[in-house]
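pipeline: protein-struct stage 2 | run 1193 | CopG family ribbon-helix-helix protein
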Amino acid sequence: MATSLKIDDTLKQRVQHLASQRRRSPHWIMLEAIQQYVEREEARESFQQEALASWSAYQETGRHLTGQEVRTWLNTWGTEEEKAVPECHK
């Protein structure tokens, strides 16, 4: 799928300069930027959807962990006394 992209002269020069310094083509620089942007925005959307689902589940069940319970559990990570995730409660 061929797509054209119109950018102003200043941005075009910046892309060309960066491409030259990185020994890449301007096309590669622009493609990389678009890929990184799309991946970041997809991750952000996924995080938001996960947060909304978690909030919905909490509203339905009331089950949760307190911040202190989570911190206590996380503090065991990487130690010989590493613990499994605690059980949620009301």
